Amino acid sequence: MQNRVLTLDEFIFQKQSVVNYASGELSGLLRDIGLASKIIHRDVNKAGLIDVLGDAGKENVQGEGVKKLDVIANDTFISSLRVSGQCAGVASEELENFIAFTGSRSERAKYVVLLDPLDGSSNIDVNVSVGTIFSILRRKTSDGPCQLEDFLQKGVEQVASGYVIYGSSTMLVYTTGHGVNGFTLDPSIGEFCLSHPDILLPSDGSIYSINHGHRWNFSNGVKKYIDHCINSAGDRDKPYSLRYIGSMVADIHRNLIKGGIFMYPLSKSYPNGKLRLLYECNPMAFIVEQAGGRANDGQTRIMEIDPYELHQRSQIFMGSPKMMDKLEQCLKVDYVTEEVEG
Ligand code: AHG
Ligand code: MN
Ligand code: MN
User: Fold this and answer.
1) Which atom of ligand 1 is nearest to the CA of 275?
2) Is the pTM of this model over 0.85?
3) For the chain, which domains are there?
4) Mean pLDDT of residues grouped by 10 in the chain (342 residues)?
5) CA distance 129 to 57
6) What is the best residue among 60, 132, 215, 247 to mutate for testing ligand 1's pocket, by most ligand atoms within 8 Å of CB?
Protein backbone atom coordinates (compact mmCIF):
# COMPACT_ATOMS: atom_id res chain seq x y z
CA MET A 1 0.00 0.00 0.00
CA GLN A 2 1.44 3.34 -1.05
CA ASN A 3 2.52 4.92 2.22
CA ARG A 4 0.15 7.75 3.06
CA VAL A 5 1.49 11.32 3.37
CA LEU A 6 2.38 12.47 6.85
CA THR A 7 0.43 15.52 7.97
CA LEU A 8 2.05 18.40 9.89
CA ASP A 9 0.15 17.50 13.06
CA GLU A 10 1.28 13.85 12.87
CA PHE A 11 4.88 14.90 12.15
CA ILE A 12 4.94 17.37 15.06
CA PHE A 13 3.55 14.71 17.39
CA GLN A 14 6.08 12.12 16.17
CA LYS A 15 9.00 14.54 16.62
CA GLN A 16 7.75 15.71 19.99
CA SER A 17 9.74 13.03 21.76
CA VAL A 18 13.12 14.29 20.39
CA VAL A 19 12.58 17.99 21.12
CA ASN A 20 13.97 19.05 24.50
CA TYR A 21 11.34 20.07 27.00
CA ALA A 22 8.74 18.58 24.66
CA SER A 23 5.70 18.14 26.81
CA GLY A 24 3.20 19.00 24.10
CA GLU A 25 3.07 22.78 24.52
CA LEU A 26 5.43 23.53 21.63
CA SER A 27 3.59 21.00 19.47
CA GLY A 28 0.31 22.72 20.27
CA LEU A 29 1.79 26.11 19.43
CA LEU A 30 3.11 24.89 16.06
CA ARG A 31 -0.31 23.46 15.27
CA ASP A 32 -1.96 26.80 16.11
CA ILE A 33 0.44 28.56 13.74
CA GLY A 34 -0.40 26.00 11.06
CA LEU A 35 -4.12 26.71 11.52
CA ALA A 36 -3.68 30.48 11.22
CA SER A 37 -1.60 29.92 8.08
CA LYS A 38 -4.45 27.98 6.45
CA ILE A 39 -6.82 30.89 7.12
CA ILE A 40 -4.37 33.35 5.57
CA HIS A 41 -3.85 30.97 2.63
CA ARG A 42 -7.60 31.22 2.02
CA ASP A 43 -7.57 35.05 2.11
CA VAL A 44 -4.39 35.38 0.02
CA ASN A 45 -5.81 33.07 -2.62
CA LYS A 46 -8.99 35.08 -2.91
CA ALA A 47 -7.18 38.42 -2.61
CA GLY A 48 -8.53 39.69 -5.90
CA LEU A 49 -12.08 38.64 -5.09
CA ILE A 50 -12.56 39.93 -1.58
CA ASP A 51 -11.73 43.36 -0.34
CA VAL A 52 -8.18 42.61 0.83
CA LEU A 53 -6.15 44.24 -1.90
CA GLY A 54 -4.74 47.68 -1.56
CA ASP A 55 -3.72 49.82 1.36
CA ALA A 56 -5.26 49.75 4.80
CA GLY A 57 -4.89 53.52 4.77
CA LYS A 58 -2.51 53.61 7.72
CA GLU A 59 1.17 53.28 8.55
CA ASN A 60 2.77 50.73 10.87
CA VAL A 61 5.37 51.44 13.52
CA GLN A 62 7.99 51.28 10.80
CA GLY A 63 6.31 54.19 9.04
CA GLU A 64 5.50 51.87 6.15
CA GLY A 65 2.16 51.87 4.37
CA VAL A 66 0.14 48.88 5.63
CA LYS A 67 -1.75 46.68 3.18
CA LYS A 68 -5.14 45.30 4.15
CA LEU A 69 -3.75 41.77 4.07
CA ASP A 70 -1.03 42.78 6.55
CA VAL A 71 -3.77 43.71 9.01
CA ILE A 72 -5.85 40.60 8.31
CA ALA A 73 -2.82 38.34 8.69
CA ASN A 74 -1.79 40.08 11.91
CA ASP A 75 -5.26 39.81 13.43
CA THR A 76 -5.61 36.17 12.35
CA PHE A 77 -2.38 35.11 14.05
CA ILE A 78 -3.10 37.07 17.20
CA SER A 79 -6.59 35.55 17.51
CA SER A 80 -5.20 32.04 16.99
CA LEU A 81 -2.35 32.53 19.48
CA ARG A 82 -4.53 34.26 22.07
CA VAL A 83 -6.74 31.16 22.46
CA SER A 84 -3.84 28.71 22.07
CA GLY A 85 -3.08 28.56 25.78
CA GLN A 86 0.55 27.79 24.82
CA CYS A 87 1.49 31.40 24.03
CA ALA A 88 2.08 34.09 26.67
CA GLY A 89 2.29 36.93 24.16
CA VAL A 90 3.12 38.16 20.67
CA ALA A 91 5.38 40.80 19.13
CA SER A 92 4.58 41.69 15.53
CA GLU A 93 5.91 43.89 12.77
CA GLU A 94 2.45 45.46 12.69
CA LEU A 95 2.33 46.36 16.41
CA GLU A 96 4.43 49.05 18.12
CA ASN A 97 4.48 47.09 21.39
CA PHE A 98 4.13 43.42 22.23
CA ILE A 99 0.81 42.01 23.44
CA ALA A 100 0.83 40.10 26.75
CA PHE A 101 -2.13 37.70 26.74
CA THR A 102 -4.10 37.68 30.00
CA GLY A 103 -5.93 34.81 31.63
CA SER A 104 -4.45 32.06 33.75
CA ARG A 105 -3.57 29.66 30.88
CA SER A 106 -1.75 32.27 28.78
CA GLU A 107 -0.01 33.79 31.81
CA ARG A 108 1.36 30.35 32.68
CA ALA A 109 2.35 29.60 29.06
CA LYS A 110 6.02 28.88 28.39
CA TYR A 111 6.46 30.55 25.01
CA VAL A 112 6.25 33.91 23.22
CA VAL A 113 5.95 34.34 19.45
CA LEU A 114 7.46 37.02 17.22
CA LEU A 115 5.81 37.54 13.86
CA ASP A 116 6.09 39.08 10.47
CA PRO A 117 2.48 38.24 9.66
CA LEU A 118 2.79 39.10 6.00
CA ASP A 119 6.23 39.37 4.42
CA GLY A 120 6.60 40.93 0.99
CA SER A 121 3.43 43.03 1.26
CA SER A 122 4.43 45.12 -1.74
CA ASN A 123 3.83 42.01 -3.85
CA ILE A 124 0.24 41.34 -2.75
CA ASP A 125 -1.48 43.54 -5.33
CA VAL A 126 0.60 42.13 -8.20
CA ASN A 127 -0.02 38.48 -7.35
CA VAL A 128 3.58 37.61 -6.47
CA SER A 129 4.46 35.22 -3.63
CA VAL A 130 4.23 36.58 -0.10
CA GLY A 131 4.86 34.86 3.22
CA THR A 132 4.60 34.75 7.01
CA ILE A 133 7.65 34.48 9.28
CA PHE A 134 7.51 33.29 12.91
CA SER A 135 9.98 32.86 15.75
CA ILE A 136 9.27 31.05 19.04
CA LEU A 137 11.18 31.84 22.24
CA ARG A 138 10.89 30.27 25.69
CA ARG A 139 9.96 33.14 28.02
CA LYS A 140 12.56 34.17 30.59
CA THR A 141 10.07 35.51 33.15
CA SER A 142 7.97 33.01 35.08
CA ASP A 143 4.23 33.30 35.76
CA GLY A 144 2.18 36.42 35.10
CA PRO A 145 1.99 38.53 31.94
CA CYS A 146 5.05 38.25 29.70
CA GLN A 147 7.53 41.13 29.67
CA LEU A 148 9.69 42.86 27.05
CA GLU A 149 12.72 40.83 28.18
CA ASP A 150 10.91 37.66 27.05
CA PHE A 151 11.12 38.96 23.46
CA LEU A 152 14.55 40.63 23.50
CA GLN A 153 16.56 37.41 23.27
CA LYS A 154 19.34 36.41 20.87
CA GLY A 155 18.44 34.22 17.89
CA VAL A 156 20.35 31.32 19.43
CA GLU A 157 17.64 31.19 22.12
CA GLN A 158 14.90 30.34 19.59
CA VAL A 159 13.21 27.01 20.28
CA ALA A 160 11.60 27.00 16.84
CA SER A 161 11.20 29.20 13.78
CA GLY A 162 9.68 28.94 10.36
CA TYR A 163 7.89 30.53 7.50
CA VAL A 164 4.85 30.02 5.32
CA ILE A 165 5.13 30.84 1.62
CA TYR A 166 1.87 31.61 -0.18
CA GLY A 167 3.08 30.88 -3.71
CA SER A 168 2.15 28.52 -6.54
CA SER A 169 1.44 26.25 -3.60
CA THR A 170 1.31 27.13 0.08
CA MET A 171 4.14 25.63 2.11
CA LEU A 172 5.05 25.72 5.78
CA VAL A 173 8.77 25.22 6.52
CA TYR A 174 10.04 25.05 10.10
CA THR A 175 12.81 23.92 12.40
CA THR A 176 13.03 23.13 16.11
CA GLY A 177 16.80 22.85 15.89
CA HIS A 178 16.68 19.30 14.56
CA GLY A 179 16.81 19.98 10.81
CA VAL A 180 14.37 21.69 8.45
CA ASN A 181 11.18 20.14 7.08
CA GLY A 182 8.71 21.47 4.51
CA PHE A 183 4.98 20.80 4.31
CA THR A 184 2.74 21.56 1.33
CA LEU A 185 -0.89 22.46 1.94
CA ASP A 186 -3.31 20.07 0.23
CA PRO A 187 -6.42 22.29 0.02
CA SER A 188 -8.58 19.26 -0.85
CA ILE A 189 -8.06 17.86 2.66
CA GLY A 190 -7.04 21.13 4.41
CA GLU A 191 -3.83 19.59 5.72
CA PHE A 192 -0.16 20.53 5.45
CA CYS A 193 1.55 17.34 4.20
CA LEU A 194 5.26 16.48 4.49
CA SER A 195 6.67 17.16 1.01
CA HIS A 196 10.26 18.29 1.67
CA PRO A 197 11.80 16.21 4.49
CA ASP A 198 15.24 17.22 5.83
CA ILE A 199 15.86 20.20 3.54
CA LEU A 200 19.59 20.83 3.02
CA LEU A 201 20.72 23.96 1.20
CA PRO A 202 23.30 23.19 -1.58
CA SER A 203 26.80 24.14 -0.37
CA ASP A 204 27.35 26.28 -3.49
CA GLY A 205 25.03 27.99 -5.91
CA SER A 206 24.75 30.31 -8.87
CA ILE A 207 21.93 32.60 -7.70
CA TYR A 208 22.62 35.89 -5.97
CA SER A 209 19.66 37.84 -4.66
CA ILE A 210 19.89 41.57 -3.93
CA ASN A 211 18.05 44.76 -4.88
CA HIS A 212 20.45 45.87 -7.59
CA GLY A 213 18.66 49.20 -7.81
CA HIS A 214 20.40 50.26 -4.58
CA ARG A 215 23.87 49.36 -5.94
CA TRP A 216 25.16 52.95 -5.87
CA ASN A 217 24.46 52.88 -2.17
CA PHE A 218 26.32 49.72 -1.26
CA SER A 219 29.69 49.44 0.47
CA ASN A 220 32.81 48.72 -1.61
CA GLY A 221 32.84 45.17 -0.29
CA VAL A 222 29.28 44.45 -1.44
CA LYS A 223 30.02 46.07 -4.82
CA LYS A 224 33.15 43.90 -5.07
CA TYR A 225 31.08 40.76 -4.50
CA ILE A 226 28.44 41.81 -7.05
CA ASP A 227 31.19 42.50 -9.60
CA HIS A 228 32.59 39.03 -8.85
CA CYS A 229 29.19 37.52 -9.67
CA ILE A 230 28.85 39.54 -12.87
CA ASN A 231 32.42 39.22 -14.16
CA SER A 232 33.17 35.60 -13.29
CA ALA A 233 30.77 34.23 -15.89
CA GLY A 234 33.73 33.18 -17.98
CA ASP A 235 35.56 31.11 -15.41
CA ARG A 236 32.59 29.16 -14.13
CA ASP A 237 30.79 26.21 -15.61
CA LYS A 238 27.57 28.05 -14.77
CA PRO A 239 27.45 31.86 -14.67
CA TYR A 240 25.60 33.50 -11.82
CA SER A 241 21.96 34.58 -12.14
CA LEU A 242 20.40 37.52 -10.35
CA ARG A 243 17.02 36.60 -8.90
CA TYR A 244 15.15 39.04 -6.61
CA ILE A 245 11.47 38.59 -5.79
CA GLY A 246 11.19 41.30 -3.13
CA SER A 247 9.68 38.89 -0.59
CA MET A 248 12.38 37.67 1.78
CA VAL A 249 10.49 34.42 2.35
CA ALA A 250 10.31 33.66 -1.40
CA ASP A 251 13.95 34.60 -2.05
CA ILE A 252 15.21 32.52 0.87
CA HIS A 253 12.94 29.56 0.03
CA ARG A 254 14.28 29.48 -3.53
CA ASN A 255 17.86 29.57 -2.26
CA LEU A 256 17.11 26.85 0.30
CA ILE A 257 16.04 24.53 -2.52
CA LYS A 258 18.46 25.60 -5.30
CA GLY A 259 21.39 27.13 -3.42
CA GLY A 260 22.24 30.81 -3.49
CA ILE A 261 22.92 33.91 -1.42
CA PHE A 262 20.50 36.59 -0.23
CA MET A 263 21.77 40.05 0.70
CA TYR A 264 20.06 43.08 2.17
CA PRO A 265 22.98 45.42 2.94
CA LEU A 266 23.04 48.73 4.73
CA SER A 267 22.23 51.69 2.53
CA LYS A 268 21.63 55.41 2.90
CA SER A 269 17.86 54.70 2.99
CA TYR A 270 18.44 51.96 5.60
CA PRO A 271 21.60 52.87 7.58
CA ASN A 272 21.00 49.88 9.90
CA GLY A 273 19.70 47.62 7.15
CA LYS A 274 16.00 47.18 6.32
CA LEU A 275 15.16 43.76 7.64
CA ARG A 276 14.08 43.37 11.25
CA LEU A 277 16.32 41.25 13.46
CA LEU A 278 13.73 39.61 15.72
CA TYR A 279 11.02 38.54 13.30
CA GLU A 280 12.75 38.39 9.90
CA CYS A 281 16.52 37.88 10.27
CA ASN A 282 16.65 35.55 13.30
CA PRO A 283 13.91 33.09 12.26
CA MET A 284 15.24 32.88 8.71
CA ALA A 285 18.82 32.56 9.98
CA PHE A 286 17.79 29.63 12.21
CA ILE A 287 16.25 27.88 9.19
CA VAL A 288 19.25 28.59 6.91
CA GLU A 289 21.79 27.42 9.52
CA GLN A 290 19.78 24.28 10.26
CA ALA A 291 19.78 23.58 6.51
CA GLY A 292 23.60 23.86 6.42
CA GLY A 293 23.97 27.52 5.42
CA ARG A 294 25.28 30.63 7.17
CA ALA A 295 23.76 33.97 8.14
CA ASN A 296 25.61 37.05 9.35
CA ASP A 297 25.56 40.84 9.23
CA GLY A 298 28.96 40.99 7.54
CA GLN A 299 30.84 40.54 10.81
CA THR A 300 28.59 38.88 13.41
CA ARG A 301 26.52 35.71 13.19
CA ILE A 302 22.90 36.98 13.01
CA MET A 303 21.76 34.70 15.83
CA GLU A 304 24.44 36.08 18.17
CA ILE A 305 23.34 39.73 17.84
CA ASP A 306 22.12 41.02 21.20
CA PRO A 307 18.72 42.72 20.65
CA TYR A 308 17.95 46.05 22.37
CA GLU A 309 14.52 46.81 20.88
CA LEU A 310 11.67 44.93 19.19
CA HIS A 311 11.91 46.48 15.74
CA GLN A 312 15.64 46.89 15.39
CA ARG A 313 17.01 46.28 11.92
CA SER A 314 20.12 44.51 10.70
CA GLN A 315 22.19 44.20 7.57
CA ILE A 316 21.92 40.55 6.48
CA PHE A 317 23.80 38.11 4.25
CA MET A 318 22.67 34.48 4.23
CA GLY A 319 22.96 31.38 2.07
CA SER A 320 25.21 28.65 0.70
CA PRO A 321 28.47 28.39 2.63
CA LYS A 322 30.77 28.56 -0.40
CA MET A 323 29.06 31.74 -1.62
CA MET A 324 29.22 33.21 1.89
CA ASP A 325 32.98 32.44 1.94
CA LYS A 326 33.50 34.49 -1.23
CA LEU A 327 31.28 37.32 0.03
CA GLU A 328 33.12 37.50 3.37
CA GLN A 329 36.41 37.68 1.48
CA CYS A 330 35.07 40.65 -0.53
CA LEU A 331 33.65 42.38 2.56
CA LYS A 332 37.10 42.48 4.17
CA VAL A 333 37.75 45.73 2.29
CA ASP A 334 34.98 47.31 4.35
CA TYR A 335 36.54 46.38 7.66
CA VAL A 336 40.25 46.80 7.08
CA THR A 337 41.26 49.73 9.26
CA GLU A 338 43.93 51.88 7.72
CA GLU A 339 47.35 50.74 9.05
CA VAL A 340 48.44 53.62 11.27
CA GLU A 341 51.98 54.66 10.23
CA GLY A 342 54.33 53.87 13.17
P1 AHG B 1 7.54 43.31 4.70
O2 AHG B 1 6.58 43.22 3.55
O3 AHG B 1 7.21 42.38 5.82
O4 AHG B 1 7.75 44.73 5.14
O5 AHG B 1 8.95 42.77 4.20
C6 AHG B 1 9.47 43.26 3.01
C7 AHG B 1 10.95 43.05 3.04
C8 AHG B 1 11.37 41.66 2.61
O9 AHG B 1 10.33 40.76 2.43
C10 AHG B 1 12.06 41.87 1.28
O11 AHG B 1 13.20 41.07 1.18
C12 AHG B 1 12.43 43.35 1.32
O13 AHG B 1 11.49 43.98 2.15
C14 AHG B 1 12.38 43.97 -0.04
O15 AHG B 1 12.79 45.30 0.16
P16 AHG B 1 13.06 46.24 -1.12
O17 AHG B 1 11.73 46.39 -1.80
O18 AHG B 1 13.59 47.52 -0.53
O19 AHG B 1 14.08 45.54 -1.98
MN1 MN C 1 8.93 41.20 6.07
MN1 MN D 1 5.45 42.24 6.92
Assistant:
1) 7
2) yes
3) 8-196 (3.30.540.10), 207-341 (3.40.190.80)
4) 79 77 81 95 75 65 74 95 94 97 92 97 90 97 94 98 97 96 95 97 96 93 95 76 97 98 94 96 98 97 98 98 97 76 52
5) 22
6) 247
